[in-house]
Each structure stands twice: as structure tokens, then as C-alpha cells.
Specification:
The protein is α/β, with parallel strands linked by helices and 367 residues long. The chain has 16 helices and seven strands. The strands form two sheets. It has a five-stranded parallel β-sheet, with helices on both faces. Helix 2 crosses helix 6 and helix 13 crosses helix 14. The longest helix has 29 residues. It is globular.
Length: 367
């Protein structure tokens, strides 16, 4: 019987029976999925598609759904939005109100275009799949979500195990922590191929800014890890919004703007480095108070967040996006200078401009 371990899933901790199985292909055989649908033909299609790889159960009534949540203890839930009522939404709310289920990922199946998508996301639904269901697409999305969940499980398992012997194996734990955080940051960047490498570059720029600001080696390393994980909250943002090329609606924009809060919840469990959560939560604050989420101003913004904000903005300008290529170096420099004292802390803006001036070959950019 594998040892029970604690994992971090979208900012929450829960016991996971699969944490000791590191091989994804082996672990996948043990994952459980509950499908709740009032359309028997669609439910049969989903069940048959997922049963190829996962242990799958079904429910056709709310009472049956609640009973199977207790008995079956699924690792993922697929809920259908009913064609003649708001079936699915109350069940998602029911799950969100219970600590034992709040971390269980929920996919909602919707038919056609509907305004219910935003309402569903507010209840904790992390992904939307349109009916009629395409089996290959369904399997791909479920595989991707559960593999990411399993990656988080294994990372947290490894970190927790090593932390118990931190006094004796400090150097080994430091190495493991860095590798784990780099891997987790890479998983976030991979949600959108246009941002691959963003977190690692922000981490490097942040460490160099901290060094030039005269900070201690410990503070420099902390700046590196804070830069690496500043966008970790995007794990809780649906892939469809992160990769969306067209304009976002107000509600979609609000959903994306929640990533600092989600990131702070996730990183708040790393008590040895509390500034990680602080940086994730405040890295979109502006020096003049026009940022978010708390509209802090000047030195009321935590120092680590002011530092990360400059590195983050610079890399955003010097990386490719779906709608543009890497900006010219001079344009990026002028934007940093323009934001000095408004968007950015003047000290860190000046340091960044100095780094740009020394970068004669324009190496500080996405290659």
C-alpha cells in the first residue's frame, strides 16, 4: 500500500493515494473519473472513451452523483450542463463547498454557444468542453489535466520527503527544490507555447537586478525563485483563456486577473520562502497605484514585487507573442524608461536600463 502523501492542487492540499507512483503511464491506470450526465447517449460516449485508460463511473441524478462522490472518490469529475435546467452548476457549487472535494478538477460539458461558461468558471470549473463530444479531443484534454495533476503530486511528494531531512541534507534539498520549481514553472509556461521560457528568463533577470542593487546572496536567490514562480497561478486559469488570441471579455479578463491570488495561495505553503507568495500576489502592482490586485503605491508595494515587475515587463516585450515578434531592444528600453516612477520602481527601472545598455548583442531576449 503506497504511503499517503500531501499534494498541492490549485492552491489546496489534499491526501493523494497516487503520489508514490512516479511513472505517469502506470499511475494513469489508477485514476478515477466520475461522469454526470442526463443525456444517456452522451454519457455512454464519454464513459466508453475514458474507460480505455481510466476507471470511470457514471451518475444520472444528483443523489447518485453525491453518493458516488463519497464511495468512488474520483480524481476528476465531468459534469454536463442540462438542456432544460441548470443541472451541473449546483453540483459544482456543492463540490466547492466541501474541503474534501474543493481540489478535485471539474470539466463541464456544454452544448452550443452559451453564456453559462463564465458562471461555470466561478463555481470552480477549470475547463469547458463543447458538445457534441469529440472523443480524441476529450481524451487529450483529460490526459493533459491529469498528467499535470500527477506532476504536481510527485513534485510535492518529493519536496515534502526531502524537507524532513533538511538538517542533514541541506545541499541536496536545495538542488532538488530548484529542479522541482523549474519543472513546475516550465509546466505553467507550457500552457501557452508563446510564453515558453518566460519564467526562467524573468528569474535570471530578477537575480541580476537584485545583485546590482547590492542585495545579499540569499536575497538574490530568493529573487530568482520569485521570478521563476511569479506566474504559477496560471495553473488555475483555463487553457482556452491563456491561449486565446482574440479580445477577452470583461469576465474572461477578470478570470485571468485572478492568477496572482491563485499563485499566492499555492506558494503560501512554502513557508521557508514567504516572499515567493508575496511576489506572485503583487507583481502586477504599479508604482503609481494603478496596478492590481490591491492598487498599492510606491514603497507600500513589497520590495520583491517591485523588482519582479520590471523583469517581467521587460521579458514580455522581448518575447514573441501570437500577435507580434520580439520588440526591438531600443523600444523595450524606452518603455522601461517611460514607466520609471509610474509603472516601475525608479531604482529597479534604472538598473534594468543599465543592463540593457550593456547588452550590446541583444542577448537578453527570447531566442
Amino acid at each position: 500500500m503506497p504511503e499517503e502523501i500531501k499534494i498541492l492542487q490549485f492552491g489546496r492540499r489534499k491526501t493523494d493515494r497516487l503520489g508514490a507512483i512516479h511513472d505517469w503511464n502506470e499511475a494513469r491506470k489508477h485514476y478515477r473519473i466520475l461522469v454526470a450526465d442526463w443525456d444517456e447517449s452522451n454519457m455512454a460516449l464519454v464513459r466508453d472513451t475514458l474507460s480505455v485508460r481510466y476507471h470511470t463511473e457514471t451518475a444520472v441524478t444528483a443523489d447518485e452523483f453525491e453518493r458516488k462522490m463519497y464511495e468512488f472518490s474520483p480524481d476528476m469529475v465531468l459534469l454536463s450542463y442540462g438542456f432544460n435546467s441548470d443541472d451541473g452548476i449546483p453540483l459544482a457549487i456543492w463540490m466547492k463547498q466541501r474541503p474534501e472535494y474543493v481540489s478535485t478538477p471539474v470539466i463541464m460539458m456544454l452544448r452550443g454557444d452559451t453564456d453559462i461558461e463564465v458562471e461555470a468558471m466561478k463555481t470552480g470549473v477549470i475547463e469547458i468542453i463543447r458538445k457534441p463530444i469529440k472523443p480524441d479531443l476529450l481524451l487529450l484534454r483529460v490526459d493533459r489535466m491529469l498528467e499535470l495533476r500527477h506532476l504536481q503530486t510527485c513534485l510535492e511528494n518529493e519536496v515534502d520527503k526531502q524537507m524532513r531531512v533538511v538538517e542533514k541534507r541541506n545541499s541536496e534539498i536545495t538542488t532538488l527544490l530548484k529542479q522541482s520549481l523549474v519543472t513546475l514553472a516550465s509546466a505553467v509556461d507550457a500552457k501557452d507555447h508563446y510564453t515558453n521560457g518566460h519564467s526562467s528568463r524573468v528569474a535570471e533577470y530578477s537575480r541580476e537586478i537584485a545583485r546590482r542593487a547590492g542585495k545579499t546572496e540569499r536575497a538574490q536567490n530568493e529573487a530568482y525563485y520569485a521570478g521563476l514562480l511569479h506566474d504559477i497561478g496560471k495553473i488555475g486559469v483555463p487553457d482556452s483563456l491563456i491561449a486565446k488570441c482574440s479580445g477577452l471579455t470583461d469576465e474572461e479578463y477578470k478570470t485571468i486577473r485572478r492568477h496572482p491570488e491563485i499563485g499566492a495561495e499555492i506558494l503560501g505553503h512554502i513557508t521557508e520562502m514567504p516572499n515567493l507568495a508575496v511576489a506572485a500576489y503583487h507583481h502586477h502592482e504599479h508604482y503609481d497605484g494603478s496596478g492590481y490586485p490591491d492598487h498599492l503605491k510606491g514603497e507600500d508595494i513589497p520590495d520583491i514585487a517591485r523588482l519582479i515587475a520590471v523583469a517581467d515587463a521587460y521579458d514580455a516585450m522581448t518575447s514573441r507573442r501570437s500577435y507580434r515578434d520580439v520588440l526591438p531592444q531600443e523600444v523595450a528600453k524606452n518603455e522601461i524608461k517611460k514607466g520609471r516612477g509610474t509603472q516601475f520602481d525608479p531604482l529597479y527601472a534604472d538598473i534594468m536600463v543599465g543592463m540593457i545598455d550593456e547588452d550590446k548583442n541583444y542577448d537578453m531576449r527570447e531566442k
